[in-house]
Design goal:
This protein has about 425 residues and is mostly helical. It is built from 15 helices and two strands. The N terminus is likely disordered.
Amino acid sequence: MFLSKKMAAVFLAVLAAPLFFSAGVSAQTVSEAVSNRRATLEQELAALEREIEDQRRVLAERQRERQSLERDLAILDAKIRKAKLSIRARNLVIEKLSAEIRGKEATIAALIRKIDREKESLAGLIRKTNEIDSYSLAELVLGNQNISEFFADLDSFASIKAALRDSFRELESDRAETENEKEVLETKVSEETQLRQIQELEKKRLEEQEGEKKKLLSISRGLEVVYQKIILTKEKSAAEIRSELFSLRGSAAIPFERALEYANRASRKTGVRPALILGVIAEESNLGENVGTGNWRVDMKAPRDTVPFLDITGRLGLNPDKMPVSKKPWYGYGGAMGPAQFIPSTWLLYEARIAEATGHRPPNPWEPEDAFMAAALLLKDSGGAKGTFAAERLAALRYLAGWKNAGNRAYAFYGDDVMELAEKYQKQIDILKGS
């Protein structure tokens, strides 16, 4: 019977649609493996974090002691131990993220296969629907053996059309779900790469600390008097501090005295300690090797940052193609500007306040004074003006990772490093005040 055969073919097409469910089996297997591995990693990470906190307490206790060879060696030992533990902990976090990324990739792959199968099923349904629609009522009636079969076929055809509508809706839902999974994956990859960048910086710091320890060990423990003389000779004079160059990201280095002047101005406007502002700018200057080598056409996210960037450079009368911005890493976008490393869209959020504070209209992200003010304002908004060690360290972490990720232990190194730099600059500031 002619029509019934076509109906059978259509039903075969409809029945083919649910085949995509088998694609979820492999994704589910990967998801279970990821969950098991995550649980193991979280246990190892918790143990490491307890050890890191122990070393942080040792550091705090030792730093309160009178400066001596034994005390400084103990501090270096604690720093090196904490750095090694932090590197191990971060490797676990990166491994955990990598496992989650693999799980997301498997989910996305399964969703894509599901969409492809849905498309094939839809194509079959549409072809069969068009074939049936091409027959006249007389042909349909004559093609059936009896009237009851004719009306049964019509009912089946109506069901197929309803299934076609449902399939379109499901396909749209699958597409939206895949886009969401891709966004989550991009965020995970971005976070992992940022952790790897911090990892490299911490390894450099560790090498410096181990080198410093070797120098201290070259001095006999019994020659404390000699060591005290070395400490005195290491203390910089006010003149040396003033002339010392302060490195900036995306801009030329400036004398420390001028950097301190900008930090003092920003501090008076925001209440954030000058040494903390200097610490953050110095830390930003040492992060990464892609500073100033990027191009806005290639490295910025469009239109989120490209449009504001053209607006900023246009109002400043600058050639956008000649202004240094950070180069994008393989995972995402660059485009951060100047010493404070603000992306264009964030700079616009602070531009009016920076202009109000510096009197520069419009302010320039590559101008050190404006950059220092921008950093101070962001630190103030992050709680840095409270002045306590904990508040300043948290503000530094928020400067790096935002409020959401500031509590992530994997970023703790950045906060510790900024506070160590702030302590260094506070000592220099105190020397200048006493000169």
